[in-house]
Amino acid sequence: TVVDKICRVIGKIWFKKSVVMSSMTLVAVLLLLRICEVTGFWGWAILAETLAPIVVFMYWVPYHLLFLETEDKDYGKNSGIVGAVGTWSGVAGPLLGGAIISGFGFGTLFGWGILTVLISMIPILLLPNEKVAWNFKWGNYWDKVENKWFRRDFWVYVGWGMEGVMIDWFWPIFLLARLAGSDLYLGGFKTLVLLM
Would you give the distance in Å from CA 105 to the centre of its chain? Predict the structure, then answer.
């Protein structure tokens, strides 16, 4: 399949390089969106959206490759640490984003996004090189799901993904309508939810 071939390519260029390439592509996407916002020419946004799948494949595929290679006894601890750091680092984001939009306009958010992505690359660059050998077939995914240690976690992640779609897309639209269209109030509300 296409995904299998992409995974094999990523396995050959290493996890760290793939994530760094994804981050740089994301910087390019944000820059193109900023140019679109300044010039009003939608062609830049279309070009940015053609790059978006590269960002996803070059980041999320290695992330899952790393999961597939993680030993059973370490997975809970490692995913817990990553989850905790991700949640707490995201606490100030919505409030800061709302303040930036309210104070400086929507377009400046792209510049802040570029800066944030570049800063987030620093810990990745400090990681040791880890070459993940991609030798999984579709059956191996089923083996992981059937495995006793991951069966319950699998359904937790399915629910987590569905919750993420609601939180990131539908819930903010509803809240924005309820909060009189204020980006700052929306950011503050989301920050309080994350803190809780």
Answer: 24
